[in-house]
Amino acid sequence: MTKRINFAFLITALASVAAAQETPAPSPSVTLEESSSSLSSPEESVAPPPAPEQTASASPARSARISFVPPPLEGTISLGIYDSNGKLVRVLHQESNLSEFTIGADALVTQWDGRSDNDEDVPAGKYRARGYLVGRLKVEDMGQVAESPPQSNPGTSVKVKLTPNPLANDKRSTINVAGGFDSDGSYLKTSDDLPVFTVSESPNLARVLVTKAGDKSLDFWQDDGTGLHRFRISNVDQMMAFDCGEFQLK
What we know:
- The chain has one helix at 7-19, and strands at 64-68, 76-82, 88-96, 102-103, 108-112, 125-134, 138-145, 158-161, 174-182, 185-190, 195-200, 207-214, 217-223, 228-234, 239-249.
- By secondary structure, it is mostly beta strands.
- The chain starts with 6 loop residues before the first helix and ends with a strand.
- It has a 4-stranded antiparallel β-sheet with strand order 3-2-6-15, with no helix packed on it.
- The chain is built from 1 helix and 15 strands.
- The protein is globular, with a radius of gyration of 26 Å.
């Protein structure tokens, strides 16, 4: 079961860590050994040290520090990196709990290595980090069903109204969510492909789709080749959006 963030604990931890200062590591000292005061005779010769081997210099590490104050809601965090066109290039965190972040003086901190989900270096330029804190969604297993869903397009998304994030002073935002799956199972994802909530751990799925079941609930359909299986997901409004802002990757 995925561990969930206790927001009250987080606030306490953020406040307490600000008062604590990490002791800096001592600077390494360099001691030069003095040579003997005696001089070598002219007949003595000292062989020159071998020339150091020439090695290709390693490319400098590309790393971006990302910090944010999470919304005041207990749950898990999904965080993506987007390029200047709004395309998702890296799922940096998927349903992560507090232990997967560094607690800074006034925010949670994580790092991006400048690589895509395909483990390739992305071009230098402007990028944005943003994501969602997902609360206590409820999943009810409806079992295998004979009826077909109201619509059968696996790529169709449905609108979900989110709980406003008071830290961002935003209005009640609306996002589109769709179904996704991989070898580990099925999940809800945003319309820009950021996974936010695991639905089941069923392997060998052929397709998934979502349909609206109410203001705060969805029906999630998945097909493993033997028939349709349906889940009812409730409390889908228990999500808050947050934005870490734009940054430059060199």
